[in-house]
Each structure stands twice: as structure tokens, then as C-alpha cells.
Write a structure and sequence with these properties.
Layout lengths: L2 E4 L2 E8 L3 E6 L14 H6 L2 E6 L17 H14 L5 E6 L1 H12 L4 E7 L13 H17 L4 H11 L2 H6 L1 H13 L4 H12 L14 E6 L8 H7 L6 E5 L10 H13 L2
Parallel strand pairs: 3-4, 3-5, 5-6, 6-7, 7-8
Antiparallel strand pairs: 1-2, 2-4
Helix pairs in contact: 2-3, 4-5, 5-7
Length: 273
């Protein structure tokens, strides 16, 4: 498993494809494997050099001993990963918590970010639409189950699925859902990192920083997202100069319901000169 020294930690990463670098930042509790392996990854790898990695404390990356665990900390990690790999700048795609990290990266390390894609995310604080109470309830139940069991298992991972997919998708694609659970269980996030990531998300307040983002920005959101309300996309696009937003009517949080359309939109945006 490839790892590289990034600041105070050993970070797991993968490189797929060739071309201009595209840094892909996964969300809460996810790992580098959790991107759609059937359509998005192979199709994006046809156009770009994909840089996939596990965030600090997630999957196969060390947690380290940070004095303060924040979204900014993970954005600084992402910038340091690019530096460690000898990559001066890249396109950046972040989903969910990864989109929060991507906002911090673009605002505080603008030299590293060419084009920016923010998926299924929000900027936190009082100006944003809060996460759904049902989603927060599921996360609390998962934390309690992890505390009781001491480790992830299929029963715990299954609890996460309503936050990720629509009911229709889960009913019609049981095989894909089964694969998703396996990917989570293959490199799970421990309870300590779970709590630290969750607190970082809850303490996020980036809306005032968004006007600092100068990278061309695309915001995408699923209208059926049951974790992050899609109304946050409009809030962010009003604050990021020149940004645009595209909604996917059938999609939930991971946009898995319309993978071909989502991937086409991403490629078109990144290819547009």
C-alpha cells in the first residue's frame, strides 16, 4: 500500500490515470476506495491523473497528534500531499466533508488549485442550511454502535447507507450497495477519528471566506440528498465569484444515482478553456 510522509503523518494515497492532476478529496468516514469504482474513477482516469487519498485518521492514514483537529488542518494536509508528490497545482474535487476541505484549500492555498468542484457540501455556520437532523441522528447511532462494538462490521456500515443513497437506488441496485459497504469496511475510520471529523464539521464556518476563492468553481448537488440539504449549493455559489451550480434531480448524497451525467459534467467543466 503506497504511503508518503505528509507533515506529521504517513498518508495513504493512490495514483490513477495520466494527464493533468485531479486531487479527489473524500468525505466523512470515507476512504480513497469509496469513490464510484464502476464508472466515475475509470472514466475520469481516462482524462486526468487522479490523486486519491485517505484523510488524516481515515482508513489507512495516521491520525497523528494534532493540537486542534479542524477542516483547515485537513486542507493543509492536502496541500502538503501535493507538495510531497512534487505537484505544484491541480484541479480539486471534494465531496461532502471533502468539499469542505476543498473550500479551505482553495481559500488558503490558491496557488495549488486550478479548477474547483464542490459536491454535496456546505460552508457551515449560521449562513448555511444545517445538516438534516435525521442524518445527525444516524451519525450518533453509528458512534454509539462503534463505542459498544469496538469496531466496524456490516451491521454498523449498513446504518450509514440512508445518508448516502436514495431508497430507490438501494432497492434497485443491491449489488452496488453491497460493494459500497465492502469498500467502507475495507479501510474503516476508527471511533476517535470519527468524533474528531464530526466535531470539525460541526464547528465549520467558511461562508465569509468564500469570496476569497478565485479558482473557477463548479458546485454540484443532488436534489434528493438526505445528509446535506441541496439548498447549500445556492448559498455557496452566491459567495464564490463566477461559480456555477448544477443540480441532479434523481441523486442523493454520493450522486451515485446518476454517475454518467455527473462524470460528464465534471469532465466538461474541467476541459472547458
Amino acid at each position: 500500500m503506497p504511503k508518503i510522509k505528509v507533515r506529521d503523518i504517513e498518508m495513504y494515497y493512490e495514483i490513477r490515470g495520466e494527464g493533468h492532476p485531479l486531487l479527489m478529496i473524500m468525505g466523512f468516514l470515507g476512504n480513497a476506495d469509496c469513490w464510484d469504482p464502476l464508472y466515475m474513477i475509470p472514466n475520469l482516469a481516462d482524462h486526468y491523473k487522479l490523486i486519491l487519498f485517505d484523510n488524516r485518521g481515515a482508513g489507512r492514514t495516521e491520525l497523528g497528534n494534532p493540537e486542534e483537529f479542524t477542516i483547515r488542518l485537513m486542507a493543509d494536509d492536502a496541500a502538503a500531499l501535493l507538495d510531497a508528490l512534487g505537484i505544484e497545482h491541480a484541479h480539486v474535487l471534494g465531496i461532502s466533508m471533502g468539499g469542505m476541505i476543498a473550500q479551505e484549500l482553495a481559500a488558503n492555498h490558491p496557488e495549488n488549485v486550478d479548477k474547483l468542484i464542490l459536491a454535496s457540501t456546505y460552508c457551515g455556520g449560521e449562513e448555511s442550511v444545517p445538516l438534516f437532523d435525521s442524518a445527525n441522528g444516524i451519525f450518533m447511532d453509528i458512534a454509539a454502535a462503534l463505542d459498544k462494538k469496538g469496531a466496524w462490521d456490516r451491521e454498523v456500515a449498513d446504518m450509514l447507507l440512508p445518508n448516502i443513497y436514495t431508497d430507490e437506488y438501494m432497492a434497485e441496485n443491491p449489488g452496488a450497495v453491497y460493494v459500497a459497504v465492502d469498500l467502507i469496511l475495507g479501510a474503516p475510520t476508527g471511533l476517535k477519528a470519527f468524533n474528531l471529523q464530526n466535531n470539525a464539521i460541526l464547528n465549520l464556518d467558511l461562508c465569509s471566506q468564500l469570496p476569497q476563492i478565485k479558482s473557477p468553481t463548479l458546485i454540484v448537488a443532488g436534489k434528493k440528498d438526505r445528509c446535506v440539504p441541496s439548498g447549500n449549493a445556492e448559498i455557496m455559489t452566491k459567495r464564490i465569484p463566477g461559480s456555477k451550480v448544477i443540480y441532479f434531480e434523481k441523486s442523493g448524497h454520493m450522486l451515485q444515482e446518476e454517475p454518467e451525467q455527473v462524470t460528464e459534467v465534471i469532465v466538461e467543466f474541467l476541459s472547458d478553456l
